[in-house]
Amino acid sequence: MSRLTLRTFKTMAPIERITLFKIPNEADRDRVLEQYKVLAKTATKDGKPYILAAAVGASIPDPRNKGYNVSVKTTFASMEDMKYYDTECEAHKALKACAGPVKEDVLTSYYENIL
Predict the structure, then answer these.
(1) Number of independent structural domains in the chain
(2) Is 23 in contact with 70 (CB distance < 8 Å)?
(3) 6 pLDDT higher than 50
(4) Superkingdom, according to UniProt (predicted)?
């Protein structure tokens, strides 16, 4: 008689990354938003898209956003993919070249989704 053994393997949940920008000039904001559209189409790792999901937009005015006026949420399959995004991704480097000189501030937080 054979016995079926079920094993559960803990797999890491996707990494969710939130980035907020303060970009005072509206034209600069628009350029950064357009560059995110380019990034969404061109970000690859080993020749394949690797960002699982992305949502980007101008923040809806609200006193609670404390002046951060561009909101970004990206989802990565692993911490390794997010680190690649930060250090090696050519599309992200182009985005940083666009946003870097025009941002007043940036805030980034990331987490493993528990849901």
Answers:
(1) 1
(2) yes
(3) no
(4) Eukaryota
pLDDT at residue number 12: 76
Q: Tokens in use for 115?
A: 């849901």
Q: Is the pLDDT of residue 8 over 50?
A: no
In a domain, 5, yes or no: no
The answer to whether residue 3 sits within a structural domain is no
What is the CA 78 to chain-centroid distance, rounded?
12
Determine, yes or no, domain membership for 48.
Answer: yes
| Nearest-5° Cα angle at 17, 11 to 20 | 170
Radius of gyration of the chain (CA): 18
pLDDT tens digits, one per residue of 28-68: 999 999 999 999 999 999 999 999 999 999 999 999 999 99
Alpha helices for the chain (secondary structure H): 26-42, 79-87, 90-99
Task: Please give the model's pTM, rounded to 2 decimal places.
Answer: 0.87
Q: 77 near 14, Cβ under 8 Å?
A: yes
**Cα 12 to chain center, whole Å?**
18
